[in-house]
Design a protein that fits this description.
α7 (141-151) crosses α8 and α12 runs antiparallel to α13 (419-426). The strands form six sheets. Strands 13-12-9-10-11-14-21-19 form an eight-stranded antiparallel sheet, sandwiched between helices. The chain has a five-stranded parallel sheet with strand order 3-2-1-4-5. It has helices at 11-23, 40-44, 63-73, 89-97, 107-114, 116-125, 141-151, 174-192, 249-264, 297-304, 308-316, 396-409, 419-426, 429-432, 440-448, and strands at 4-7, 27-33, 47-52, 77-79, 101-102, 155-159, 168-171, 197-201, 207-215, 221-233, 236-242, 270-278, 284-290, 333-340, 342-343, 349-350, 353-354, 357-359, 366-370, 377-378, 385-393, 411-413. Helix content is 34%, strand content 26%. The chain folds into three domains: 4-103, Rossmann fold (3-Layer(aba) Sandwich); 132-201, ATP-grasp fold, A domain (Dna Ligase, domain 1, 2-Layer Sandwich); 207-444, D-amino Acid Aminotransferase, Chain A, domain 1 (2-Layer Sandwich). The protein contains 15 helices and 22 strands. With 450 residues, it is α+β, with helices and mostly antiparallel strands. Bound molecules: adenosine-5'-diphosphate. Adenosine-5'-diphosphate (ADP) binds next to β12 and β13.
């Protein structure tokens, strides 16, 4: 087993990985930017190395600095977490060239899934259902118009290199398509340096259902059930749960098998997530595969009892999966709320600053993955997610009750957060009844007049 792992990330996921390493008797190296000198991950790791100034491109995205830090500290593996370099195939390849194990898939596997229009093509070749649309990339607006005419409006224009909900625009007619195509491709060029676009039918009011995959280096690939991530604001997840109120055992088995087939079609290794849209009429379509650990992985951990970070490390170290598909049992219900430093009544504007009072809820089956402490200053530089509240109980109704109690107890002062917004959300009748889709939050926000 690895003796020392460098964690190429920050925030709650870096802390989460440090904890898993500690339980496995693996020493940890944190990297941090100048603004993260006092961050929790910097303090909790066995060693910490400053790798540059605050802007991510000069620190958490600086491959040379990170590899140098691993070499200097003698770390034999790197865990990339999520975001930053976690889906950067070049980083995975450079690690391999420097004899450092990248805890995740190979660069080649990432390339196959990272380019979303190419991933669509691969899925089509493997008979995995995809949303009707272009076969691969669309070169110009004329092609886009022709495809939209064939599949019918509304359509969604998406960036091949997209992520985090950016580079995506809906068009309900040809005029909208022309302007949306331009806007989406400009946004993609700015955000990802790549304006390759593709077109899909816009599925109205779908649920976002994703399957957690684990695959070892010996061809064993299993799924750990689904997560329902339909609570989204601007295509970004806000709350996630497992299992989904919209999936029964039969559908879970069918979709799970297809998710495993999708992963196997590219010989995928390590942890990954196959994402689907489930339409109102019950059809489901592959939308993308994320080749890394997800923010929402704890809900799967709670209902399966499997520690996904430890599994990632064991797989990267060459261990065989110790479970078969038949060993996986989903029991009870887990829900996660993302706690962000933002102000919902001011258009969800980020709210960096110093936390001057903090009470974190606790109790049986209440888990908080966070990177905050009283006196900590949330920098303006990075993502606004500062904590995740996860609860587990025997069924959905009990889990919601527990979440209600726990979130009511969560107090963060000194900065604005979305805690009250999450409280309203989980007390909404439709959420309680499990009756929601990806359009829910938008109308919820309008009703709250935020
Ligand atoms: P990203 O990689 O940016 O997260 P995804 O392809 O995973 O992008 O899509 C994010 C979200 O956007 C989905 O969960 C869904 O809410 C919405 N979305 C994406 N494609 C479609 C589509 N064809 N129809 C309707 N909604 C879509």
């Amino acid at each position: 087993m690895f003796k020392k792992i460098l964690i190429a990330n920050r925030g709650e996921i870096a802390v989460r990985i440090i904890r898993a390493c500690r339980e496995m008797n693996i020493a940890t190296v944190a990297i941090y930017s100048e603004v993260d000198k006092d961050a929790l991950h910097t303090q909790l790791a066995d060693e910490a190395i400053c790798i540059g100034p605050a802007p991510a491109k000069d620190s958490y995205l600086d491959i040379k600095a990170i590899i140098s830090a691993a070499i200097v500290t003698g770390a034999s593996a790197i865990h990339p977490g999520f975001g930053f370099l976690s889906e950067n195939s070049k980083f995975s390849k450079v690690c391999e060239e420097c004899n450092i194990t990248f805890i995740g898939p190979t660069g080649e596997m990432m390339d196959k899934m990272g380019n979303k229009s190419q991933a669509r093509e691969t899925m089509i070749m493997n008979n995995i259902p995809v949303v009707p649309g272009s076969e691969g990339a669309v070169n110009n607006t004329d092609e886009a118009l022709q495809i939209a005419d064939n599949i019918g409006y509304p359509v969604i224009i998406k960036a091949s290199a997209g992520g985090g909900g950016r580079g995506m625009r809906i068009a309900r007619n040809s005029e909208e398509l022309l302007s949306s195509f331009k806007m989406a491709s400009t946004e993609a060029k700015n955000a990802f340096g790549d304006d390759t676009m593709y077109v899909e039918k816009y599925v109205e009011n779908p649920r976002h259902i994703e399957f957690q995959i684990l695959a070892d280096n010996y061809g064993n690939t299993i799924h750990l059930g689904e997560r329902d991530c339909s609570m989204q604001r601007r295509h970004q997840k806000v709350l996630e749960e497992s299992p989904s109120a919209a999936i029964d055992n039969d559908l879970r088995e069918i979709m799970g098998k297809i998710a495993v087939k999708a992963a196997k079609s590219i010989n995928y290794k390590n942890a990954g997530t196959v994402e689907f849209l489930l339409s109102e009429s019950g059809e489901f379509y592959f939308i993308e595969m994320n080749t890394r650990i997800q923010v929402e992985h704890p809900v799967t951990e709670m209902v399966t009892g499997i520690d996904l970070i430890k599994e990632q490390i064991k797989i990267a170290d060459g261990e065989k999966l110790s479970y078969t598909q038949d060993d996986i049992e989903i029991s009870g219900h887990a829900i996660e709320c993302r706690i962000n430093a933002e102000n919902p009544s001011k258009g969800f504007r980020p709210s960096p600053g110093t936390i001057n009072f903090l009470h974190i809820p606790s109790g049986k089956d209440i888990r908080v993955d966070s990177s905050i402490y009283c006196g900590y200053t949330v920098p303006p530089t990075y993502d606004s997610m500062i904590a995740k509240l996860i609860v587990y109980d025997k069924d959905r109704e009990s889990a919601i009750k527990k979440l209600n109690s726990a979130i009511g107890e969560f107090i963060i002062k000194g900065i604005d957060t979305n805690i009250d917004f999450q409280y309203e959300l989980i007390n909404n009748k439709d959420f309680i009844e499990g009756n929601y889709n990806t359009s829910f939050i938008q109308s919820f926000v309008e009703k709250l007049e935020l």
